[in-house]
Amino acid sequence: MAFLEIRALIKNFGALMVIDNLDLVLEPGELLCIIGPNGCGKTTLFNLICGELRPDGGDIRFEEQDISLLKPFAVAQHGIVRKFQVPAIYEELSVSENLAVAAKTRNPDLSILGEIGLLERAKDQAGILSHGEKQWLEIGMVLATSPRLVLLDEPTAGMTRSETARTVALISQIHRERQLSMIMIEHDMRFVEALNCDVAVMMEGQIISRGSYDKVSKLDVVREAYLGAAPA
C-alpha cells in the first residue's frame, strides 16, 4: 500500500497547464527531494496536496483515501503538514510559546526544542532568533502537531552554509528517529547531495526522473539548471 499516491494529476490556469498528468508515489517513512527550475510546478503540486488548490484531473490518495477535493483544514486533519519557505512563527511570543500554539496546549513537549537545538532558548522571544533558528523553530512547530507527512518548501532558503549543514543533520535525524515521511522542494544542490535521499526531477509539470542524487545529477537538464554545464 502506497502512503501517498498521485496519479495522472492535472492542474490548469486558464490555457496554461501547470501540472501535466503527474504521477508520484511515496512509501511510508520515505524522504524525497523534488528539484526543478522555477515555474515547473513544484509549489503548485504542494498546493494541490494540501488542498489549497483543486485538481482539474487525476487524484491524490493518502493512505488509500482520496483527498483530492478536501479543504486545507481537512487535509491537515489527516496529518499532512506544510512548512513554507518563509518562517511562519509568532515573533512576539517566546520559543516555547510558539511550540504551545502549534501543539494547541499550554504544556507542549519541550523535548522537541532539544530535538531542534533550541532548548536553551525556550524563554527567548522568537523574533530575536537568527534566520536559521527561526526555520528550525518552525520545523519544531510542525513536529508539535504530530504529523504523518511533512512538506518542506525550500527549508534552507536564506541560510548560511553552516546553518544549511545543521539543517541537513536535523532533517536526517528527524527522519531516522521518527521514521517520518517527508517531501522537500529544494534548489540548493549541495543540500540535496548531503541529504543523500531519493530525488525527483520535475520539468514542465511532470516528474521526468527519480532516483539517487548520483543518478539524477548526470541528467543534462539537471546539470544545465543547477551544476553549470552539460556533459559533452
Give a quick set of tags describing it.
six-stranded mixed β-sheet, alpha/beta, 10 strands
What is the topology?
Elements: E1 4-13, E2 16-26, E3 31-35, H1 42-50, E4 57-62, E5 65-66, H2 72-77, E6 80-83, H3 95-103, H4 111-115, H5 131-143, E7 149-153, H6 161-178, E8 181-185, H7 189-195, E9 198-203, E10 206-211, H8 213-216, H9 220-227
Parallel strand pairs: 3-8, 3-9, 6-7, 7-8
Antiparallel strand pairs: 1-2, 1-4, 4-5, 9-10
Helix pairs in contact: 3-5
Report on the architecture of this protein:
The chain is an alpha/beta fold and 232 residues long. The protein has a domain at 89-146. Helix content is 34%, strand content 26%. The protein contains 9 helices and 10 strands. It has helices at residues 42-50, 72-77, 95-103, 111-115, 131-143, 161-178, 189-195, 213-216, 220-227, and strands at 4-13, 16-26, 31-35, 57-62, 65-66, 80-83, 149-153, 181-185, 198-203, 206-211. The strands form 2 sheets. It has a 6-stranded mixed β-sheet, with helices on both faces. Strands 2-1-4-5 form a 4-stranded antiparallel β-sheet, covered by helices on one side. Strand 1 and strand 2 form a beta hairpin. Helix 3 packs parallel to helix 5 (131-143). The longest helix has 18 residues, at 161-178. The N and C termini lie far apart (42 Å). The mean pLDDT is 93.
